[in-house]
Amino acid sequence: MSRALTITDIDDLAVGAWVIGTGGGGSPYLNHLNVQRLMADGRTFDLIDPTELADDAQVAVVSTMGAPVVMQERLQDSRDVARAVEIMADHLGSPFDAVMATEIGGSNAFQPLMAAAHLDLPVVDADAMGRAYPEAQMTSFAIAGLQPWPLSLVDPRGIEAVISHVPTWKWMERASRVLTVETGSMAATCKAPRTGVEVKRWSVANSMSLAIELGATVRRARAEHRDPVDAIVDETGGRRLFAGKIIDIERRTTGGFLRGRAVVGGLDAWAGREVELEFQNEWLVARLDRQPIATVPHLICLLDVESGEAIGTETARYGQRAALIAMTAPELFRSEAGLAYVGPRAMGYDLDPVDPLA
Amino acid sequence: MSRALTITDIDDLAVGAWVIGTGGGGSPYLNHLNVQRLMADGRTFDLIDPTELADDAQVAVVSTMGAPVVMQERLQDSRDVARAVEIMADHLGSPFDAVMATEIGGSNAFQPLMAAAHLDLPVVDADAMGRAYPEAQMTSFAIAGLQPWPLSLVDPRGIEAVISHVPTWKWMERASRVLTVETGSMAATCKAPRTGVEVKRWSVANSMSLAIELGATVRRARAEHRDPVDAIVDETGGRRLFAGKIIDIERRTTGGFLRGRAVVGGLDAWAGREVELEFQNEWLVARLDRQPIATVPHLICLLDVESGEAIGTETARYGQRAALIAMTAPELFRSEAGLAYVGPRAMGYDLDPVDPLA
User: Fold this and answer.
1) Could A161 and B162 be called an inter-chain contact, meaning their C-beta atoms sit closer than 8 Å?
2) Suppose A103 and one of A129, A260, A334, B340 were both cysteines; which one would form an S-S bond, judging by CB atoms 3.0 to 4.6 Å apart?
3) How high is the mean pLDDT of chain A?
4) Which CATH superfamily is domain A229-347 in?
5) Nearest CB partner across the interface for A171, out of B87, B159, B171
6) Which residues of A touch B158 (CB under 8 A)?
7) Which member of A159, A163, A181 has the closest CB to residue B166?
8) Residue % of chain A over a pLDDT of 70
9) Does the beta-carbon distance from B164 to A162 stay under 8 Å?
10) Pairing of strands A159-165, A186-195
11) Angle (CA) B355 B141 B175, round 5°
């Protein structure tokens, strides 16, 4: 089941991961270039299915924490995330067998590839969110109640830390977030390592393949002059909720996050109506004429109407023509245990979750 | 030269360390009780001279970081600082031979005793400040350019971290401070470990003995109905600068520090005049009628006129009768390299240092 990723796979991943990043995870643009460069230098990427992992395999789980606006301005060295994995291996006193993404959304889909290239490890075709979420505890591993520690963190100025114990997943988020903020709201991290059996039981399996396939769908639709937004809706089983023009955007980088709201004024069938989107790195709540029409944990995606490219919370700008689509979240995240981590109330909204397809 | 500390030594240390804490280091009250309890439980404390250390001895350097107001309210478990040393030993993969204080001022004089009691290690008669300073980089070890990493940090809720690399001493302060603030502005830490040869060359030697002797001086003066403030001035070679009544105190706990100012209205020879004291955990600048009369790195001590007990920046209150005394800092801290870390400009004041005895 293992396969070597191609240049086209990498290009497709940049498109697909950005769509399911639901506005966050950071624009893949810069780290897509990083991985293209690594491939041009002869590095190869071996994508393995979670089922191929030995039960006792040690899997490094990586992401870059921070605020997407900062990630656009501060270029990442692909060695930073590899360094985070090395520090973790030193801390554990044992090497890793594979690397996987914490979140498949946006730029974070490229983090395991960058680590793997420098460490010569395979990449597991899985993540722990199936999208992007703003905080470190918003994962399938946390919902499963797996051990939240340790975590290693790297800033390229030479700041390296290991958070070796925490009482809760939320404390791991808090402790790693303050270090991230202090180093400039961006830091490469290696999260609590997982065994093969934990990855097989609790990860969102095959999410990298699905992101690549979603990108390929967009690529084929463009080549065939079909509507790429329709192609994404068909491929994902999502629903088109709204279309219009971005008429307002408010952003602030605070507490290590990008927070704010965007307003889309309706066009065509939606003329005269408005959608407001609130975000914390990711789009969290969509309201049509002030009524919630989609909330976390469900996936809210704002797409460029022409190209089908995702519009990120840090890249959205006045005047963009945008289609709003949404998809139902996987069952684990809709469960009572899941909603405690990734439901609207977990993110500060006094709202019940709204499934856009219900 | 090694000796077992007596109950009287511990009582004297509480008084002497609080005087040379220059308002900071935290009130010794609670940790004095901790150490009294450990002695009542049969623990002994072996104080060794730095010259007794083997050149390659591994010495743990401990303190509790945070804001003194918080330390008054949150009781410390003596095991916390021992745990910080254990985490450091695990990180290094080798055990420690002795423990010493980062700062001899205030409550932090008791930290190596608490660690030593649980770890069954001797305490080195030395520290790295010869007083208390607000920030972690304000040490003889930093001035000497020794390696600033690693640092371990413990919060009793089960938050444990190791900052394993930093580019500068100031970055170690920044990274450890944000974790301290996040855990509630108080955390037990084990700083960068030192070898025996480093301690012998760069520590402030015999500062624990001197603090104990200073406390004994106060105790004897009280017993003999002599003025304890005069006794402190004689013992330390300091100077009495002012006496009066505290007529204003402003305090705020911000960024993990206690900051503010106190105003003392003159009495007797100083009637009609005012001293203003600015502080960041410690008294940093004293101004008489708006003219600086003493600044860091020199020691500024506010004492209760009756008892000779130090008045801390967190305990100073309206109406207290206080004597202001000051002492010249050791030469290392007055050097150009020293002032870069502990001079008025290093603490944000556009002032040249003022030696109160010059």
Assistant:
1) yes
2) A129
3) 96
4) CV3147-like (2.40.390.10)
5) B159
6) 165-167, 171
7) A159
8) 100
9) yes
10) unpaired
11) 105
What is the tens place of the pLDDT at every residue in A174-227? 999 999 999 998 999 999 999 999 999 999 999 999 999 999 999 999 999 999
Give B173 to chain A, closest Cα distance, Å: 11
Minimum distance, in Å, between the CA of residue A259 and any CA atom of chain B: 21
Kindly report, residue by residue over A95-124, the tens digit of the pLDDT.
999 999 999 999 999 999 999 999 999 999
CATH architecture of B228-347: Beta Barrel (2.40)
Q: HSE-up of B300 (CA within 13 Å, CB side)?
A: 32
Which residues does B6 contact at the CB level (< 8 Å), separation at least 6?
none
| Sequence ranges of the domains in chain A | 3-205, 229-347
According to CATH, the topology of domain B3-205 is CV3147-like fold (3.40.1610)
A–B interface: beta-carbon pairs under 8 A? 65
Closest residue, chain A, to B170 (C-alpha): A159
Asked if A46 contacts A4 with a C-beta cutoff of 8 angstroms, the reply is: yes
HEC secondary structure over B128-186? CCCCCCCCCCCCHHHHCCCCCCCEEEEECCCEEEEEEECCCHHHHHHHHHHHHHHCCCE
Domain B3-205 matches domain B228-347 at the CATH topology level: no
pLDDT tens for residues B101-136?
A: 999 999 999 999 999 999 999 999 999 999 999 998
ipTM of the complex: 0.91
* pLDDT block averages, 10 residues each, chain A of length 358: 93 98 95 97 97 98 90 92 98 98 97 98 98 95 98 97 98 96 95 98 98 98 97 97 97 89 97 97 96 98 97 96 97 96 96 96
Task: Name the nearest CA neighbour of A82 among A21, A156, A162.
Answer: A156
Distances in whole angstroms, Cα of residue B193 to Cα of each of A212, B196, B227: 48, 10, 41
Residues in chain B within 8 Å Cβ distance of A165 = 158-160
